[in-house]
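As a point of orientation, let us examine one representative protein, giving the amino acid sequence and backbone structure tokens.
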Amino acid sequence: MTIPPFAYLFRRFFGFAIALLVGGLNIASSQVPLIDNPAPTPYSYCQQFNTLYIKIREESILPDSARASFGRTMIGLYERYRSNNDYPTDTVSESGRQRTAMWFPLKGYTSTAIGGSHGEGYRGKGFDLFDYNVRGSHPAQDIFIRDRNQDSVDDETGKPVDVLSMSDGLVLAVETGWTSAQEYRGGNWIWVYDPVRNGLFYYAHNKVVNVTMGDWVRAGQKIAEVGRTGFNAYKPRSPTHLHLMYLQLQPNGLPMPQNTYPWLLTAQRD
């Protein structure tokens, strides 16, 4: 069958147009760069930690699942800082540890404000971060302020008492909305990750929190003001104090409480 000249020219033009279109798509697709999955940012680890901690507090996650999730997050965060060449202080050598100073966490106070005569308020046995029903341990030091009328103001200065970060670190999570109707024990708290020591500082019962999740804080920087928030700290029988806890992270990312008393005795002061 003889193809009419018009039809023949149409088919040639159509085929040529298709070829150009397909070729153009291939060229364009070959120029699209392949993007690797970006490494998690410190803030993304903050989000993971905060979400998990709220689940633990609200008992919406089983303890074993919480441990597994916590371990993965902490190992990832540690690796993130260990591999960061821009991080000014190494996380391995002893000299690197020494370059990060420890500061006493209450401005204007000394170790004489620590509960007990030799820090015996610390009781680490039985601690379980992942089971909110476990009670009885006290893996922390309570540091008391002069506040006889319990208004969260220093009786001598007439001013709130600043809470200072003991070390450099990343603010992993904060709570700022505690009310007296809640039964949560920590009140308004702050979690700070110290990448040099690979551990977590926990500052609880604050009246005011001055940092937000994802902030980087320096040793000696104000992060809060002492208060009476928290189920037990709010009660009149409890003197006004800062609840200070440190958890040393193990190779598997899980926390082990460590007594901060020796650090508090030698910490720098303002």
Remarks:
- Residues 5-30 form the longest helix (26 residues).
